[in-house]
Specification:
The chain has 325 residues and is of the alpha/beta class. It is built from 17 helices and ten strands. The chain has one domain: TIM Barrel (Alpha-Beta Barrel). The longest helix has 17 residues. It is globular and about 70 Å long. The relative contact order is 0.12.
């Protein structure tokens, strides 16, 4: 079915790569909405589950997880919309990320759903702070097939612009939605294969949502300090932000109440971030949604919800109790 869907495009896919912006733009233009609607089989469903939930008016439910094969197998069977594999505080390991992405795929789910996309959308948090501007982490993660990048410690509009630019391919200035100007290097072969699409279709969809409505790349910018709060109005003017995620751990540390997430000073600072995101109509996320705070977080307007999936030793504890251990 997938082969039939993209058979017409296969003959031109080999021209992607070193041919330059002109040929690539021509291929993207060929995949205009008018062209796609000529053949219903060429119309792909939404691939990114996070975006699918948000654009349908729902909350997106995700979590941070270590980048490990066993975790990927477990997550693929979960009811999360997406997962952010943690590589900020854990070591950056490109091979581990590649393996984790592959084990996020379940052939039975793909057949049953009729979609080539993983049931739980894989993204990654990269290790570099905004001020470092190391775009290559995003480039490598996207080239492997990640559907989104979480950028920690974004504190200025310039840092936000760099983060979004790193997730976009370059294009000519006369093209729509030129800004933020893309700087991502061209190497789509692995990503297109992982997404299950042709290279021309990958070029069309490998852009940032919601700036580009059909884009499948979800960019998460973390506001984690008072400088970021002070600059948030300007940060939110940068196009292509999928979500502002509050880093309440680092923020609470700076405010003098480390990990006291219910302290009024911390909550007031977070409320300021939420208010400004609402004004700009940008999704805001919370990293620690738990049983005790979930209703408050929903009432405050958070839509990107990170709810941990901790291991439970309840059965072990009960067995130890019954055996007198």
């Amino acid at each position: 079915m997938v082969g039939a869907t993209f058979g017409r495009l296969g003959s031109v896919a080999r021209y992607c790569g070193p041919a330059g912006f002109g040929v690539r733009d021509a291929l993207i233009d060929e995949l205009s909405p008018q062209t796609l609607t000529e053949n219903p089989m060429a119309e792909l469903p939404r691939l990114n589950g996070i975006i699918k939930a948000l654009e349908s008016g729902k909350h997106a439910i995700t979590c941070f997880q270590p980048c490990e094969i066993g975790v990927a197998v477990e997550m693929a069977q979960s009811k999360y919309d997406g997962v952010v594999y943690e590589m900020e505080h854990l070591a950056w390991d490109g091979m581990a990320l590649r393996h984790t992405l592959q084990y996020s795929l379940n052939r039975g789910q793909i057949v049953a759903s009729g979609s080539v996309a993983p049931q739980v959308t894989p993204m990654v948090r990269i290790p570099v702070n905004g001020v470092e501007k190391n775009q290559w982490f995003a480039k490598q993660a996207l080239d492997m097939g990640c559907y989104g990048i979480c950028w920690p410690h974004i504190s200025t509009a310039d840092q936000a612009y760099n983060a979004i630019s790193a997730c976009r391919y370059p294009r000519m200035k006369d093209k729509p939605n030129y800004e933020p100007a893309g700087i991502r290097g061209d190497g789509p072969v692995q990503a297109a294969r992982y997404w299950g699409v042709s290279q021309p279709e990958y070029y069309k969809r490998a852009d940032v949502w919601p700036l580009v409505p059909h884009g499948e790349i979800f960019t998460i910018l973390q506001i984690e300090d008072t400088e970021g709060i002070a600059n948030l109005k300007e940060i939110l003017k940068v196009g292509g932000i999928g979500c502002i995620l509050i880093g309440e751990g680092d923020l609470s540390q700076e405010l003098g109440y480390p990990r006291q997430y219910e302290h009024k000073v911390v909550l007031d600072a977070m409320a300021e971030i939420v208010a400004r995101c609402k004004e700009a109509n940008v999704v805001v996320g919370h990293p620690h949604v738990e049983i005790g705070n979930a209703q408050r977080i929903l009432d405050e307007g958070y839509r990107f919800l990170m709810s941990a999936a901790p291991r439970s030793y309840a059965t072990l504890d009960n067995t130890r109790k019954l055996t007198g251990r």
